[in-house]
């Protein structure tokens, strides 16, 4: 018996990184997974994985999010993973950077929760997991102004939803990773003027001597998606190797 047997789980940003690792981990534990992303080619790599159905969805588009919600008869777990990391202080952040980051990191969660929460309320049960970060209200991080602001807002959104619907069978928690070794991080490192030094800098701030893996974050997400965490709601779950200390 899997830890997630019988559960229907919808998640975004499933084509790579934490989203992909979580989709696979959920399916291995018996869930029926609807894995979404805007990257159709990368998403196709999940086709054929038992328990996973893929669908191209832009979670910043209300019409696409609402159409997805209407397709599904039941949703037990909603995992909002989609995000974007902008590099820079407030002086390096243009209005377009602010708007784009908030749209991807925060508004997408607003749209997804708005679309799926009524279904959960009708079921009298539901579990929402949001991807936040240690770079948020938890820790001030250099050159992460708008990203950290958006993730602090995700923590606030999580607590608000948890408080509003705690007596209606709904749970809402967020995951706050530190530095995770993902394709997205590697792309950002390669985009820096000196990629080799950028990688050394990322590693130097890891008190454990290494970065977190996407699979390690996925293990935590399985716990939050399962009934093992039935008494857990409105909380930030930090997985950062002690980076915040």
UniProtKB/TrEMBL annotation:
Main location as per UniProt: cytoplasm
What Gene Ontology terms describe what this protein does at the molecular function level?
3-hydroxybutyrate dehydrogenase activity; 4-oxoproline reductase activity
Q: Which CDD domains match?
A: DHRS6_like_SDR_c
* GO CC, any one term: cytoplasm
Classification via Gene3D superfamilies: NAD(P)-binding Rossmann-like Domain
Q: Where in the cell is it found?
A: Cytoplasm
Signal peptide extent: none
Q: What class of enzyme is it?
A: oxidoreductase
Q: Which family does it belong to?
A: Belongs to the short-chain dehydrogenases/reductases (SDR) family.
Q: Which SUPFAM superfamilies match?
A: NAD(P)-binding Rossmann-fold domains
What species was this sequence derived from?
Answer: Clupea harengus (Atlantic herring)
The protein, known as: Dehydrogenase/reductase SDR family member 6
Its encoding gene is what?
Answer: bdh2
Its subunit composition reads: Homotetramer.
Note the InterPro entries from the entry.
NAD(P)-bd_dom_sf (IPR036291), Sc_DH/Rdtase_CS (IPR020904), SDR_DHRS6-like (IPR051122), SDR_fam (IPR002347)
Q: Where does the source fall among the domains of life?
A: Eukaryota
